[in-house]
TrEMBL record, chain A:
This is BON domain-containing protein.
From TrEMBL, chain B:
Pfam families: Metallophos (PF00149). The keyword Ion transport does not apply. InterPro entries: Calcineurin-like_PHP, Metallo-depent_PP-like, Metallophosphoesterase_sf, UCP008292. The lineage of its organism: Bacteria, Bacillati, Actinomycetota, Actinomycetes, Kitasatosporales. One of its GO terms (molecular function) is metal ion binding. This is Metallophosphoesterase. It comes from Streptomyces toyocaensis. Keywords: Hydrolase, Metal-binding.
């Protein structure tokens, strides 16, 4: 019986590492039906941070649902905010 | 003084119908024109464009727009443009328009622009066909912007504004990952602006960027992506240079 380690050539658990999963999530958010390029996903130690601004609360829920599905089992911190639609309270003077 | 309202990246769709209209209805009191810096829709469908159209129809100030990459996603940018034009917006791509504000002539030159990166870290027209085409598209957009600004200079405009979706400078991208800068803008746009001259450059696209920047030639740049400005729009007061011989003109007419 061989005890030889097959090594990385046989594939490793790294293929399911948070980095690759986050990359696939980012791709899915951008190119899927959400078309969301403004949401960033970053690996922070043992957790994942999702942040950005989206146009509506419904969009925020859709993004979070996709994140939960794609990153199941990982601890995710969400900091996604909805765009502010109010008028400005001042103007900038350009000289 | 010209009062310029501007916003980009509003990403409207049926679920956000009417969300910006209350703020847009205040425009006649605080602005002379509204610039829309692209990514007006989420996926570039005519249905989404109709939501944008309803948001800007009959605003009481002229609306000048460029499209963004989202507005191209469904490959129906011509239909999106037509819907916006039907609502009264000027939609520019390598083109210009002149808006009269009192006695002043405000020229706006617009293009979506494209990526490619900035000086010292930019893509070159070399290698695979798709890579060469990437850079050529960016160059065509920049050439269109330069030609439009030069045309406005010949049309006796008091102020000229460059309106793009992609950024002409890296300063207004600060906050975005450095690695994606080549997908957020191109120095070719800034070179076009500095070559032809402009009083202000306005863009969107970089949601995590910064509002303020400047070209090498000293033209002020503003990133008005809605997530950056945190409002329905921002207003910039742009002084109108006094015309040489204006007093004489006034007395002889």
């Amino acid at each position: 019986m061989s005890t030889h380690d097959a090594g990385p050539a046989a594939g490793t658990s790294a293929a399911r590492s948070p980095e690759y999963r986050v990359a696939h999530l980012q791709d899915r958010l951008a190119s899927g039906h959400l078309g969301e390029l403004g949401v960033r996903t970053e690996v922070r130690g043992e957790t994942v941070l999702v942040h950005g601004t989206v146009p509506s609360a419904r969009c925020r829920e859709d993004v979070l649902s996709t994140v939960r599905e794609e990153l199941a089992g990982l601890e995710v911190h969400c900091d996604i905010v909805v765009s502010e639609p109010s008028s400005p309270d001042h103007a900038e003077e350009l000289s | 003084m010209i009062r310029i309202a501007a916003v980009g990246d509003i990403h409207l769709s049926p679920e956000t119908r009417g969300v910006l209209r209350p703020a847009f209805d205040t425009l006649p009191a605080c602005a002379d024109l509204l610039l829309l810096a692209g990514d007006l829709t989420r996926h570039g469908t005519p249905e989404e464009a109709r939501v944008v159209a309803d948001e800007i129809r009959g605003l009481g100030v002229p609306v000048v727009a460029v499209l963004g990459n989202h507005d191209h996603h469904d490959d129906r940018q011509d239909e999106v443009t037509a819907v916006l034009r039907e609502a009264g917006a000027e939609v520019l791509e390598g083109e210009s328009t002149v808006v009269r504000v009192g006695d002043a002539r405000v020229g706006v030159a617009g293009t979506k622009g494209f990526g490619g990166g900035f000086v010292g870290a930019s893509a070159g027209e070399f290698g695979e066909p798709v890579m060469k085409e990437f850079v050529r598209v960016s160059r065509r957009c920049a050439d269109g912007l330069r030609a439009s600004l030069e045309k406005l200079a010949q049309e006796d405009c008091d102020v000229r504004i460059a309106l793009t979706h992609y950024s002409p400078v890296p300063e207004t991208l600060a906050g975005e990952p450095l690695e994606i800068y080549p997908f957020l803008g191109s120095y070719l746009l800034a070179e076009a602006i500095d070559t032809a001259g402009a009083d202000l450059a306005v863009h969107g696209h970089a949601h995590a960027g910064t509002e303020h920047g400047m070209t090498t030639g000293g033209v002020k740049v503003r990133n008005v992506a809605q997530p950056v400005i945190g409002r329905a729009f921002h207003v910039y007061h742009l002084p109108v240079p006094e015309r040489v011989g204006a007093a004489t003109e006034a007395t002889t007419t």
